[in-house]
Known about the structure:
Layout: H1 10-34, H2 38-71, H3 76-107, H4 114-139, H5 169-176
Amino acid sequence: MIVEIIPNxxxxxxxxxxxxxxxxxxxxxxxxxxxxKEWAKIILKxxxxxxxxxxxxxxxxxxxxxxxxNTVNHDAPSHLAMxxxxxxxxxxxxxxxxxxxxxxxxxxxxxxxxVFLTVLIISTGILATTAFKGGELVxxxxxxxxxxxxxxxxxxxxxxxxGHGHGNQKQIQxxxxxxxxxxxxx
Length: 186
């Protein structure tokens, strides 16, 4: 029996991908800065393991993302945003696949070169952009979230304690004093 996740498993897997690749990048940087210290080798081995686990998580992330792309209800603007995110995700996954393959050559050496590290840092920046675009799907377009039940009576169908309504305290006081919160030219 598979547990039903609304809308699907992509939001779960994607966090592993981002966390593991980001951790790997941080560990590669730390291990490189540490240089020839004995513990640098341990840090770099941990970086490799995080990178490899991130690559495995990415397989599940991409599969669940494609499922989401083809099944989540959406409109035309959100479809464009989904397609943009998907395209960034494919490119990002391809970059990390190449870096992961490249890392097998550096594992035995217990150090990485500056070219590898630079490509990894740039790729992590691209990963952050891809993640941002995914976050926009949720927070800007409302993709994959359940809607709040609508109020038949409208927005003002509930009460707030004094000073705890919608808006900040200064705006509330200005409205109570007859000001609408912006300056008027004289």
